[in-house]
Amino acid sequence: MRGxxxxxxxxxxxxxxxxxxxxxxxxxxxxxxxPDYYRMVADVFHEGYGDKVKLRAxxxxxxxxxxTVFLVKDGAAARIVTLEPKIQLWSYEVLTMMRSExxxxxxxxxxxxxDKEIADFQAxxxxxxxxxxxxxxxxxxxxxxxxxxxxxxxxxxxxxxxRQPDEEDMVMTDGTRAHFAVMxxxxxxxxxxxxxxxxxKPYALWNLAVAMHDxxxxxxxxxxxxxxxxxxxxxKRP
Length: 238
What we know:
By secondary structure, this protein is α+β, with helices and mostly antiparallel strands. The chain folds into 2 domains: 2-87 and 135-236, no CATH class; 90-131, no CATH class. Helix content is 38%, strand content 22%. The chain is built from 7 helices and 8 strands; from the N terminus they run ααβββαββαβαββαα. The protein has helices spanning 2-12, 35-44, 90-99, 115-123, 143-158, 201-218, 221-236; strands at 53-61, 67-74, 77-85, 105-107, 110-112, 134-141, 176-182, 189-193. The longest helix is centred in the last third of the chain and has 18 residues, at 201-218. The chain is globular. The model is unreliable at 2-17 (pLDDT under 50).
């Protein structure tokens, strides 16, 4: 997860400021080019869709396993939970593309079906994606802190909107996309981003979600407290 902030900062250099999240375009909130893949990710992360989950971030990275961090609030108890598969779930989508010859290999200057590569790649994966092992972490937080997290996330999601005519946009090929959601009311709020300039609310929200993930592993609250305070400060600015 430490590489997520760096990836976000890297792509931000190539685009103008995006001061808001964009509406969901995946199965996490709509339609997508690879719906089977997104359904698979949501299935593997089904714990993050429980009825006690109040907020959630899912990170989809080009070259590393997907991951999620979410907040569970149940009466007087609250906890931050993270899930991360041991292998990238996108591998199953790649295998499907190889079988359908969307991905081929070169032999003698000709593109041909990659039969050996398909066999080797398939052998490297569990037969069923449900069998992929998950790394899971959980850390308790007090309800007051959980309420602060919810209060900080919500305004950013409420500002989600489609790209405006005067805003630049870019097509991301490599990097990381973050899908955010808040489920304290119905319908849930959802938005996503793959880049944002430093100082914007989406950037601060991204950093907070990463800090929540890292704190669960390290048990060091300093980074999480600082990230939450940073997002709260962006929301107080005129």
